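Technical annex B. To support the medicinal chemistry partners, we prepared a structural model of the target in complex with copper (II) ion, based solely on the information shown next.
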Amino acid sequence: MDAHVLHHPRKENFWTKWVFSQDHKMISRQYLNTAVIMAVIAMMMSTFFRLQLAWPGQSFPILETFLGKWAKGGILDPNMYLGLVTIHGTIMVFFVLTGGLSGTFSNLLIPLQVGARDMASPFLNMLSVWFFFASTAIMMVSLFVEAGPASAGWTIYPPLSALDKAMPGSGLGMDLWIISMAIFIVSALLGGLNYVITVLNLRTKGMSMTRLPLTVWAFLVTAILGILSFPVLFAAALLLLFDRHFGTSFYLSDIFIGGAPLNQTGGSPILFQHLFWFLGHPEVYIVILPALGITSEIIATNARKPIFGYKAMILSILIIGFLSFVVWGHHMFVTGMNPFLGSVFTFTTLLVAIPSAVKVFNYLATLWRGNLRFTPAMLFAIGLVSSFITGGLTGLILGDSALDINVHDTYFVVAHFHIVMGMSAIFGMFAGVYHWFPKLYGRMMNNSMGYIHFWGTVVSVYGVFFPMHFLGLAGVPRRYYANTAYPLFDDFISLNEWITFFAILGAIFQGVFLFNYFYSMFRGRKAEQNPWKGNTLEWTTPVEPLHGNWPGAIPEVHRWPYDYSKPGKTDDFVPQTIPLTRDEKEGH
Amino acid sequence: MNAFLILLVLFFGLSVIWQIIRIFELTSILQDKVILSELPSEQTNNFNGTLLFIGTFFYLGAFVYLFFTYRDKLLPPSASEHGFSIDALFGTTIVIISIVFFLTHILLAFFVYKYYGKHGRKAYFYHDNSRLEFFWTLIPTVVLSGLILYGLIIWDRVMNPSDSNAMHIEIYAKQFQWYARYPGADSAIGIAGYQHIAGTNALGLDTNDRKGWDDVITGDLHLPVNRPVLLTFRSQDVIHSAYLPHFRMQMNCVPGMTTRFQFTPQTTTTEMRLKENNPDFDFILLCNKICGAAHYNMKMPVVVEEESLFKKWIDSQAPFMAGRSSQVKNQSAELNVLPTAPVN
Ligand code: HEM
Ligand SMILES: [Cu+2]
Ligand SMILES: [Cu+2]
């Protein structure tokens, strides 16, 4: 890339440096900090509704403190229960694990690791983060709507979400949800286009596609998935808005509600589900792939060993990406779809297990005979391997149409997606924050606190989500305010209390992380240039980040990023910028 | 105020932890134990590797413990014919899953324990082996092919049952109530549609259709044992889902379309009470698709009984047209402008 474009950066003032920054590293921090705040809010919501689930109908004054009229006398209102669940899910999936994860790490690492001075379009990049911020703000405003926020579940299936007579949350709250999501999608698209173009066009000299770190590969495929699938959700949401306000009937037909027949006919609620899940399934890979990419990098670096099967890893990311577009029907096995179609979706869904298994085996082979350094980042990466296995395996049950009949929409599903998507992606995110904190803030996070955080977190989240499998198999439906009306579920009262205990414990341990994060941001120990002895290009930039990334010319790349513990070298790492010696063969 | 206090306590708690950690670190620096670097020491590696090892086995143990504690509750007892074949498929899948779960976790535990970082040791530079790669692509492929095939055979059998003489019952959902509609003496249920809903005609039966006159509408679901039933589902307002966990049956009720599920109950409520050794046992139909504030309370009692008891019960129910004046009939005849498709 033309080096002198950014060589003399414009004079920065307060606004261009801190608020409307076009520097990808600042934008990355803005994404991360927004996501951290969102995650805290969503986590608090989950502890609130977990209190209700463990001790239904019992009074908790703290609920009234936070929720006011929605928890009169400390008892959570059933409508607000659904509102909390909906907003919790929406925030976690879209704001924390899409905006937060991709936004933070694609922005930070793509230019740094491919050797570019910034994104292809820094301006669009700035717009992307501000659209993101606007969408989170609107979602927060929707919490204060008189009739409550959107409450139809994060999947907002119509007609429930289309008719304000169907539930209080389907009034203004739902409009704000849709508007917030539309703006979020604009942000995701602006970001995604930038990521793809940057990876394809701005790689430094010598950085061929097969010398890219796996992080960048994961971000690239993720961005492509987003570009292809988010517009479909945009369309679905827009049509829903039309049905709500302009009398169209895309999703409505034959409905009698509020004492009168509706005159919108001819639409199909199932159409919405097809459109939603055409985004929705790729979305779960948009959430998990960056986490897997981060894990690959961190495991290799801290095992002091090349990632095993580099090319197989890339291939499996690509195959997973492709398959994610042809499996959406597994969310709809019991909607009355043609059984033959169900068979097709079962077939494609279970195929995803093959590339996923290959990834797991490759991780294991990477650990084998490594020299493992257990930094907090490494621990979270290993935790991800465990949760990805656990959650992936239960996918074999849910993806099998015949078995899904009985477990669809039960707590088995809640257990499955929290482990494979929630836990894995969050672990990936934590790993990323611990590992690249020096590149974010030029300082180190405290390790001891990192260990406390990891051990507290891993025990709590498994304590929360693992037992939910058993609830689900017994038939406990999700999105239930209480199970008290069902003697069938009486055996699970104590298990439910344990789950809530672990949820609160887990929330407390996140306090350790938050403290560590904010404290280290200002007072952490100053980082060295390459604290983890990594090979990739970001560790060749100065500790004090600067606009344009490298003070001099952009370094040239001579080898793949995984020359760790290469025989014949004195150090156990060889940065990508070191030329091959005369008779040295390149890694893979 | 409350919240503020809690935050304050949390803040101070964290500060204390922080100070303790600092003291530990400073003393160990004084004792020259730690080189000033964020790279974990050999001791730290050993400690965390060991913890991971123990932790993993603790995790596997917890799985086994929970599995055996809730073994009887793992899937409620099956009471339908196809339920047993689904349970068999489930069993097979669980066995395969558990094997993989244990194997991979045990490998993970051993690797992190054995290869914790030591000074002066170098990792083994080993990054490709296409034979291995092929091998561990092939094995999942073979196992999954078997699982897919098995699953699809069961799915096909469940969704396309062979008996064509099943008894037709309609399940009708609205916020937040379930109804069952039986065909009556003519064995056929009458035409119904949302535009006919009025007053006590909650299901919207078209009173012009004589087939509907003898239909029986009830608030609980009685099923004769060992006789195939074809359930069709309609909804009045939003999507609901009829979930019968004991029968391994679930189907969405979608406004604007009719869905269906056919199965054969095999165990009566009485038999189940004996088998479960629980005199209060009852089958239940739950709503399993979010449908509003009272979603969690939307249920219908289900009774499976001998054919003779079922006959007695259904004969004691009033047919739809009983007590309805002919005037009502005429009125709705005039109002009936929109044609409706028959339900079946
Ligand atoms: C802080 C720890 C968390 C706890 C204790 C928790 C707990 C729960 C529970 C109990 C439900 C089900 C409520 C119901 O169905 O009635 C739920 C729903 C959900 N959670 Fe979480 N969760 C946590 C973190 C996460 C994370 C990290 C994600 C990211 C993927 C996530 C995504 C979701 C989604 C998508 C739903 C479904 C919302 C819906 O049904 O519409 N959660 N959560
Ligand atoms: Cu999916
Ligand atoms: Cu419901």
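Notes passed to the chemistry partners:
Residues 26-540 of chain A form a domain with the Cytochrome C Oxidase; Chain A fold (CATH 1.20.210.10).
The first helix of chain A runs from residue 14 to 19.
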